[in-house]
Amino acid sequence: MRNLIYxxxxxxxxxxxxxxxxxxxxxxxxxxxxxxIEFRPEAFALKGEELExxxxxxxxxxxxxxxxxxWPGSEDHAAYRExxxxxxxxTLPEDALVAGWGPTRILxxxxxxxxxxxxxxxxxxxxxxxxxxxxxxxxxLIDRYHLLVFPVLLGAGKSLFSRADRDKQTLRLRSSAAxxxxxxxxxxxxxx
Length: 192
Fold this sequence. Notes:
Elements: E1 4-11, H1 32-36, H2 45-53, E2 54-60, H3 61-67, E3 85-88, E4 104-107, H4 110-118, E5 123-127, H5 130-138, E6 144-150, E7 171-178, E8 184-190
Parallel strand pairs: 1-5, 1-6, 2-3, 2-5, 3-4
Antiparallel strand pairs: 6-8, 7-8
């Protein structure tokens, strides 16, 4: 069974949207990572470590459309170019997929994701995609969280976790680290 791993930048109050600077969200705090936090390479080393384990990427439609405009030509993301990509969307047409960015397949339902997890292969990392992450978490399909928690309270934005009344999920800490700029790395396995 393949592991589905969510990786993301998270504000202390649980917001995951627009960390990189784009005004794509409907609140004034978009770009909070690059605006407010001192860059410390060691705090972002997790991203390089993840590459060793990543065998495929998964995105929701909006995150795919955002990343597909910058990542294919970005030298910072060159290692992702040829990795298989899965886009979860009931509306994205096949002709909207970006050519030259590795093999890409659209998954139309949660059942398609369940079947993908049953297939041969390694870890699939979900980047961005807050709505997809909430839905997959509620369905019990996420196996691990890789979180960089930033010392900001945004008060608005997309939450990583659902507020739905659902069964409790227990997380087991795999590793953690704190950095001088206030960022905290938390890696949790979903235990049940």
